[in-house]
Design a protein that fits this description.
single chain, alpha+beta, 3-stranded mixed beta sheet, 3 helices
Length: 91
């Protein structure tokens, strides 16, 4: 897992979105004035990300959310489990 590098590309963003697709949370890009660039509505399991953020900001938000959400690793497919573990072990 050492040497894992976050790539700021549309392809990597889609990989992160694929992780969220396997959870109970719905990911949406909306306009808004979120202090952190995103908002999590836990009781409805909705994640809102500022759609006007640059690609790097969106990716950073997605990674941060993955690290703070209580997600069981069992929900992920094998390929996504590996990515999730790599991301959750980054500082």
């Amino acid at each position: 897992m050492d040497g894992f590098e976050i790539k700021y590309s549309k392809h990597f963003q889609h990989k992160l979105e694929d992780l969220f697709a396997e959870t109970d949370y719905m990911l949406r890009y909306e306009k808004g004035t979120f202090n952190a660039g995103y908002c999590i509505i836990h009781d409805k399991k909705i994640i809102l990300i500022n759609k006007y953020y640059a690609l790097e900001g969106k990716i950073n938000c997605l990674i941060e959310i993955l690290r703070v959400l209580p997600i069981s690793i069992d929900v992920f497919s094998e390929k996504n489990k590996d990515l999730y573990l790599k991301l959750s072990n980054q500082n």
